[in-house]
Design brief:
By secondary structure, the protein is an alpha+beta fold. It has two helices and five strands.
Length: 137
């Protein structure tokens, strides 16, 4: 699964911020020319806008990464919990979201509240197996 390089993600993020910077710069120049904003305040306004975007980049970086897999395919390998008995179909909660699922183990009955692991997807249905017990570290 190809992932974006950190440099290309930063470039993509920066390019999406440029229209905002142009608008803020334009507003600052307009207010300065009309005498409604001192020059230092206009420069501070533009700089604070850029600083805000720099501070938000670590939080928003993953939204700008390119990923060829769909959102449901990224659930493969994650653990969840059966919210109803899976015999063989039902619902599981993975990452706080409710998903239609189907048990694919030899004994497909999975009790409510039992941990499961997503091992494949079919359309929008998660194919799950009983999760192995977690080992203490």
């Amino acid at each position: 699964m190809p992932r974006a390089t950190p440099r290309s993600t930063l470039v993509r993020y920066t390019l999406y911020q440029i229209p905002e910077w142009v608008l803020v710069l334009g507003a600052a120049i307009l207010l300065y020319r009309r005498g409604m904003l001192p020059g230092w305040a206009g420069a501070l306004l533009v700089a604070s806008c850029m600083a805000k975007d720099a501070a938000l980049y670590p939080l928003l970086r993953t939204a700008y990464e390119t990923d060829t897999s769909s959102a449901i395919e990224r659930l493969i390998g994650l653990r969840g919990v059966a919210v109803e008995p899976l015999a063989p179909g039902g619902y599981v909660r993975v990452r706080g979201e409710l998903w239609r699922s189907e048990a694919t183990a030899v004994d497909p009955a999975i009790r409510r509240g039992h941990p499961v692991t997503v091992h494949a997807v079919r359309g929008t249905t998660l194919l799950v197996r009983p999760a192995p017990p977690r080992t203490a570290r």
